[in-house]
Amino acid sequence: MTRIQANLLLLLAAAIWGGGFVAQSTAMKAIGPFWFIGLRFMIAALAVLPFMLFEARKGPVKTAPRHLKLYLLTGLALFGGAATQQIGLQTTTVTNSSFITGLYVVIVPLIAVVFLRRSPHWIIWPGAIMAVSGIYLLSGGQLSALTTGDLLTVVCAIFWAGQITLAGTTVSETGRPLALSAAQFAVTGACALAVAVVTEPISWAAIWAAAPEILYVGIFSSGVAFSLQIIGQRYTTPSQAAIFLSSEALFGASLGALLLGETMPPLGYAGCALMFTAMLLVEVVPEIARRRASGRLKPSPNLG
User: If you average pLDDT over every residue of the chain, what do you get?
Assistant: First the structure.
């Protein structure tokens, strides 16, 4: 596979995820947020299960109790992110949700600073300031204009960042990304269904009405897009992958405008642009610095 083909796969994954924001928003006209999350992730777990079983046959590392704990913690973080995002979509727009969710790109390095005691690249600090400034502009220059959904989506981004951090640790120890994927989907689905049974009414008519959205995010946003991401990232550079995958926010905003008729004032678009720039800088600048440092360390062919 060429790098151009790999980047096109990543762009397709981002487009699928962007469409997922629209599906998540429209589904709640028929079904409660926790029923939607539960059914979505149970379908996602079933979609990944055959691939997980195939992976298990070749897995060099046996599953240990510590791995099960990591699977559980990652699933709980995913549940926290999914729940706050889904509830937030009740009182915020698809555009705001897609861009604010993308702040996990900035938050992940900050988690590494606080909990893992890792020194971040210098770009993290201006990136964080740009991201917060973007949220301020998204509110129209008035923090009181931020809705409860916007604030919940900020919390969602923190949960996503925690999930990404835990997932990185888990995969590095187990070498089984599909096992982690199926496990975290199952944990999230089970937690959501447990909450839904207690707090939300349900009927077959409601499930049937939301079935297209449930199937889309369950099969495509989770199963297909996740697979496209894994395949694509094997044949391209991390910096290019970051650029194409972060376009998820642009697809979410574009589809929100096209399909749902969402609009925002010019100041809001400026905020989105600032947040998107921060996401790219945090991913691309450290990769460029790493490449330059690697190039300087290579021995000259004239030596020796």
Answer: 83
Burial grade of 115 (CB within 10 A; 0-12, 13-18, 19 or more): exposed
Q: Which pLDDT band holds residue 303 (cuts at 50, 70, 90)?
A: very low
Task: Please give the residue that has the higher pLDDT: either 37 or 171.
Answer: 37
Residue 12, CB-side half-sphere exposure with 13 Å CA sphere? 17
Q: What is the pLDDT of residues 202-230, one digit of tens each?
A: 889 999 999 999 999 999 887 788 778 76
219: Cα within 13 Å, side-chain hemisphere:
6
Q: DSSP letter at 222?
A: I
pLDDT in tens, 257-289: 888 888 777 888 888 888 888 878 877 787 787
Q: Which residues contact 70 (CB under 8 A, 6 or more apart)?
A: 166, 169, 170, 173, 174, 180
Of 30, 82, 18, residue with least CA distance to 262: 18
For the chain, what are the domain ranges? Answer: 3-288
Question: Helix or strand or coil: residue 262?
Answer: coil
Q: Tell me the three-class secondary structure of 12-34, residue by residue.
A: HHHHHHHHHHHHHHHHCCCCCHH
What is the distance between the alpha carbons of residues 240 and 54, in angstroms, rounded to a whole number? 30
**Helix or strand or coil: residue 289?**
helix
CA distance 222 to 67: 22
| 142, burial (CB in 10 Å: exposed 0-12, middle 13-18, buried 19+) | exposed
Pairwise CA distance, residues 127 & 282, whole Å = 6
Question: Which residue from 157, 154, 155 is spatially nearest to 105, judged by alpha carbons?
Answer: 157
The pLDDT assigned to 304 comes to 44
User: How do residues 235-246 score in pLDDT, each as one tens digit?
Assistant: 776 556 666 777
Of 241, 246, 82, 67, give the one whose Cα is nearest residue 169: 67
